[in-house]
Amino acid sequence: MLGVARNADEKTIKDAFRTLAMKYHPDRNKEPDAESKFKESAAAYAILSDPKRRADYDAGGHAGVDASMQDLFGGLRFDDLFGGLGFDFGGGLFERFFGRRAGRPESGANIEVDLSIPLERVRIGGEEEVSYSRREICAACKGNGAKGGTALHDCPACKGTGERTRSARKTKDAIIIQRIGACPECGGRGRIVDAPCPDCRGLGSVERVERLQVKIPPGIEDGMALRVPGRGVPPQSARGVPGDLYVVVRTARDPRFERDGADLWRTEAIALTDAVLGTALQVPTLTAPMELAVPPGTQPGTVLRLRGCGLPRFSAVGQGDLNVRIEVRVPQRLSAEERSLYERLRSLHAHAGRGQS
User: What is the pLDDT of residue 264?
Assistant: First the structure.
C-alpha cells in the first residue's frame, strides 16, 4: 500500500504517505495515472493511521474495512501533514476526488489565477502579490438586488421558481418533450424588484479587485497550484462558505536559462579554435558568474555541468545543476591569412592520414 512494513510505526507511515502524496499530487504530476495513485496512497494512509481500521485491514484486507471513502477521510487532518506549503492537500482536494462530505455546507465556486514569478523567486522563495477579481454579495442590498426601502415579489412568469418549462409534442410518436431553463423574465432568480439597487444594478453582487500576498516555497515547481482557502466566490446561501482561490505558479521566461525541474540549461557558443584547444568561459548563474573549463577536443553538442548551480529541489534535499550545452561556431568568412593557415592544417591532417594507412 504505502511500501511500509506491517509493523511500521506512526511516523514511518506518515512519512511514506507524505512522500507519495507529494509525488502524485495532481497539481504537480500530470501523468495519466497520477490521480489514481494519489487516491490509493490517501486511502492507504487513512487505513493504516487508524488502529481499528488497520486491525480490520490486517484481518480481512480491503473487505475488512467497513467504511465508505467519505467516512474513511472524515476524521483525518490532511492539512496537518502538509501545513505551511500552501498546496491543496486539505478538504478541497478530497471533495474533488471523493465527493462532498456529509453535513458540509454548500460552498461558492473556486477561482483559479496564474502567477508568473522569476527564477530568483523560485530560488529563494518569499512572498508575491496576486491580483484578481471576484464577485461578492452587495453590501448595500444584502444580495437581494433591491434598492433600500423597496419591495421584492415573486416573478409572475415563473411564480417564484426561477424556471420556465416549455413543452413540445412529437405528433408521429405521441411524445411530449419538456425543456426546463432559467426564466427569461427574472433571469432565474424567481424574484422581481420594483427598484434595482444602484450599487449592483439589481444583480445582488458586485465585482471587486482582490490583492493578497501568497507565500512561495523555495524550489516551487512550474504549474504547481497554491490553495488559499476562502478567497474564492462567496456562496449563494447565507449558510454556505466561500470557495477557494487556486494560484497556479508559472516560471517567467528568463533570457539566460531554460528551466527543467530543478535543473537549468544554457547554450554557449565557442570558436572552432577554442573547441580544439580548450578554453575557459565565464558563465552566469543565479548568484554570481562562474568559470567553466572547456576541455580540448570538445565536440559540438557536448553538455558541461556546473553542479549545484540550479534551483532548490522542492520537498527534497539539495540543488539542481546548471547544464551548459556547447555550440561550435564555424567561421563563414576567412581572411587570406586564416585561409592559408586552415589549408596548411588540412594538409597536415592529410599527411598524417597517409602516414597511418
Answer: 98
